[in-house]
User: Fold this.
Amino acid sequence: MKKIITYGTYDLFHQGHYNLLKRAKDLGDYLIVGVTTDNFDLERGKMNTCNNVMERIEAVKATGLADQIVIEEYRGQKIDDIQKYGVDIFAIGSDWEGYFDYLNEFCQVIYLPRTQGISSTELRQERPTVNIGVIGTGSIANRFVNEASNVNSVIISSVYNTRIEECSVFCQTHNIDHVANSLDELFSKCNSVYIASPYKTHYDYCKKSLLAGKNVLCETPFVLDSAEAIELYEIAESNHLALMVALKTAYCPAFRHLFSLVKSGVIGDIVEINASSTTLLEEGDYIEGNRYGGSMVENGCFTMLPIFKFFGLDYQNINFYSKMKGQTDMFTKAVFRYDHSVASFQVGWGVKTEGNLVISGTKGYVYVPAPWWKTDYFEVRYEDQNQNKKYFYPYVGDGLRYEIKDFALAVLNKDYHNTNLTMQEIFAMAKVQEIYSKEINLYKL
Ligand code: CTP
Assistant:
């Protein structure tokens, strides 16, 4: 019996896929089709698939051409599969001509003619797009626009900044056609808005954007007052709009898997969490003051993320210890007491700490090395070191593409309840910032 194997993503299954499978099947007696997993696609930088792996497998199955379907999870799997299944022929479309010649050592490699005029990429481009208007043109907005170009179905259609010259330079740098002279002009060009303006303007811009019927992705810290956060979400809900906070760590593959892994009990009951994020800055490089400045405002939400994710939102109390310089906290340690556990974080501009995350449990602990908030790697460690395990993940580019992809999906699928960073977690973060700004349980060092 002659066995053939072929691989693909098979997103938005089309005639070109069918023809290829048919041609591959005609080469022998038994066809194995490898379908890439969502994670493998992410790792390869394919951020844009519209169908998930189950839907893509179903589409291949429905052709009736595959005798066996396998999922492709990692680089190098093709050689393993060829040997494992005793494959005679590896077949793939001619767009890969030459690329898989190295497999000739293991079986015959055949490049089959590709069907002209159709591809998943083209089909995706015909689907509705998320036209984003950007408010603010600082360094994070630069990174955002670069990253957005990696996410299909997202277009940056216009940019607004009160300083119009800066806005023009930004648009030139990024090849964006439209410089908006006013918010209304920006709104006329987009269905969604990314807010990367100074923190004190977030509430106002979010509200105006939502009232204008735009979906919103707002940089972190979102707002520093829980009543404002609740009000904005109420507006979003009643107008059927997406409102998401761009806290990039929450959307990254490593952090997402860390969450499900730890929740599955690999380190037993979690008893302590400590997260740290500090950057030494010179005077003039940071925003002063205790309302919209200081290291707590700047980085507090990142370090609260693992605490709220793993321990939930029902802490009993919180204490802050801040090293001040005038009105500005240059270092803050916060300690949360829960019923059966304790969590803490450190943020700082004038003090340097190890920027790691440690989650300690009754059976072992998780160590996420610095900088844990953009991690592609962590370790689960036990008393018996032989049982330690290392986990590696993609963290491509600046890591913003994951949140952008989630935002685009929320808008396109009208699915507004993001589980990577929930509305309740966002309210809780705003509440902590509010308590801190009121100096409740704050001990100045
Ligand atoms: N294929 C083909 N003819 C097409 C499109 C794809 O023969 N018009 C083949 C590819 O060469 C590959 C298989 O179908 O062997 C699966 O390809 P996949 O990458 O899933 O499909 P594409 O449409 O090429 O997807 P994309 O545009 O995302 O690259």
